[in-house]
Amino acid sequence: MKTYKKNYIGKGTQVPNMQIAKCTVKVSDMLKFKHEYEFEEYITFEVAKMQNPDKFGRDYTVYCTTREEVEDEKPAPKKRKSKTGVNADIPF
Fold first, then answer.
1. Which residues contact 18 (CB under 8 A, 6 or more apart)?
2. CB count, 10 Å around CB of 12?
3. CA 33 to CA 68: how far, in whole Å?
4. Are 44 and 30 contacting, i.e. CB atoms less than 8 angstroms apart?
């Protein structure tokens, strides 16, 4: 099964009186997520407002999303009541 993982690479703050987020990202962290398209290199990242600022007052986070393959978890067996009123495992 494919899933998406957020790889956090930086943080930032809102510029006073403007709708701009000023963020700082370490270049070596960002370069881990570069990809090529038609012989050009790109980095796709997202900037999101955090629910609460961190201890340094930064209220935005920067992350790159990667798609990963993970193994499907086997569902737990269902339980049902038997005629005696005791739960019994039902194998799949």
1. none
2. 19
3. 13
4. no
CA atoms lying within 13 Å on the CB side of residue 29: 12
Residue 14 domain flag? yes
| Residue 85 reports pLDDT greater than 80 | no
* Average pLDDT of every residue of the chain: 86
The predicted model scores a pTM of 0.68
Give the count of domains, the chain. 1
What sections of 1-92 are H helices per DSSP?
Answer: 27-31
Interatomic CA distance for residues 90 and 86, integer angstroms: 13
| 59-65 average pLDDT score | 95
For range 53-77, the mean pLDDT: 86
Domain membership flag for residue 92: no
